[in-house]
Structure to design on (393 residues):
């Protein structure tokens, strides 16, 4: 097969053509957040053509079984930062230059105001209110427009979640393996035509990091920094040589903002050296309540390739499991370990705090190793371990 000709799903709006929204759905999710399970699957959707989804742009991620649980929009600030700002459409104005370069020359980015004009934002848009710092579903209010898919998913205006759940289950059953599918949807609000769900492709789910299950039963605890049965991610990471540790014994909940500043300083230092690192802390990372964890923003820990979240010394809090940074963790495939005594996980604090630091502050320290810190995750069981590096004597 050399050439595939496929009819595009979409509608014509003046000099442009695009579907109301498009997306990708997978029947297996290596980043489930309670109450989701890995087998519940995951979907990513965006206004306009699927180039936004395929190339890792700002999309809305949701589980077809829990479509109202939009974790990435847990706060107004995160919603504004992580929402789609523009969309792709096919230009219908033919130019000679377009045919001598690449078809992408015909894919144009449009502002959200164009989508509102075309009425394609009606079912998937929300509005930010400056007056009371709240985001409302729908476009009836005055304010900046945001793509949240809230009106559609929360009010079930179109059975998108049910359709995806059915197709993913049928595809998995028919192919005998997890699948992924691409789709596009026309709601045709203004043109009053029949709504259309277009199934574009369905294929076995093949991702390099997901190729094989990792047997963690053959590893001795003495060789581990930590072991967790609540892990987001899958595969093996072998290129980490640095650890930023919040000292378990020195941490004070009343000083959590100071701890966040120290972590940010180390993060910027390692970013400038182009080094990724393992981040180890207590309480919830990114919490809005500084008494329940360390209130960092994503830019303060953006160099972390793996994150460990552990309990406090003096109290137990419900772990966040990365929900504060859901979009960033999934987009950059960051490993996230939650250590909870109730789930029989453990972390070797004695070993960590006995390592000679490269640099040390009041509450945090930077440790560097010549040999790499190896991370192994079994995404099918949501279990993982982090191995101690070999210390040269």
């Amino acid at each position: 097969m050399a050439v595939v000709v496929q009819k595009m799903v979409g509608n014509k709006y003046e000099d442009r053509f695009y579907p109301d929204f498009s997306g990708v759905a997978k029947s297996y999710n290596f980043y489930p957040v309670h109450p989701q399970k890995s087998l519940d699957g995951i979907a990513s959707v965006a206004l306009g053509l699927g180039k936004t989804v395929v190339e890792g742009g700002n999309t809305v991620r949701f589980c077809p079984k829990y479509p109202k649980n939009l974790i990435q929009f847990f706060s107004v600030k995160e919603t504004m930062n992580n929402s789609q700002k523009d969309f792709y459409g096919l230009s219908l104005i033919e130019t000679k230059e377009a045919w001598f370069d690449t078809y992408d020359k015909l894919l144009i980015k449009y502002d959200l105001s164009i989508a509102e004009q075309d009425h394609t934002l009606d079912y998937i848009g929300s509005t930010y209110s400056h007056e009371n710092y709240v985001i409302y579903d729908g476009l009836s209010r005055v304010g900046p427009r945001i793509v949240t898919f809230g009106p559609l998913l929360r009010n079930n205006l179109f059975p998108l979640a049910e359709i995806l759940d059915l197709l993913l289950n049928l595809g998995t059953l028919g192919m005998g393996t997890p699948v992924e599918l691409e789709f596009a949807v026309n709601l045709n609000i203004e043109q009053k035509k029949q709504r259309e769900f277009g199934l574009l492709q369905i294929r076995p789910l093949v991702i390099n990091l997901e190729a094989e299950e990792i047997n963690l039963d053959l590893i001795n605890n003495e060789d581990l920094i930590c072991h967790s049965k609540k892990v987001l991610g899958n595969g093996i990471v072998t290129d980490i040589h640095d650890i930023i540790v919040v000292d378990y014994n020195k941490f004070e909940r009343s000083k959590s903002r100071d701890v966040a500043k120290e972590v940010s300083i180390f993060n910027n230092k390692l970013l400038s050296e182009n080094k990724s690192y393992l981040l180890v802390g207590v309480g919830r990372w990114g919490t809005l309540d500084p008494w329940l964890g360390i209130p960092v923003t994503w830019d303060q820990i953006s160099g972390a390739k793996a994150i460990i979240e552990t309990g406090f010394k003096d109290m137990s809090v419900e772990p966040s499991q990365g929900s504060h940074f859901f979009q960033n963790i999934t987009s950059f495939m960051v490993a996230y370990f939650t250590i909870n005594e109730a789930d029989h996980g453990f972390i070797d604090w004695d070993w960590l705090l006995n390592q000679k630091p490269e640099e040390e502050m009041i509450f945090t320290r930077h440790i560097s190793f010549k040999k790499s810190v190896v991370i192994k995750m079994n995404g099918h069981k949501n279990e993982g371990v982090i191995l101690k590096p070999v210390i040269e004597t």
Observations:
- The longest helix spans residues 256-272.
- The chain has nine helices and 24 strands.
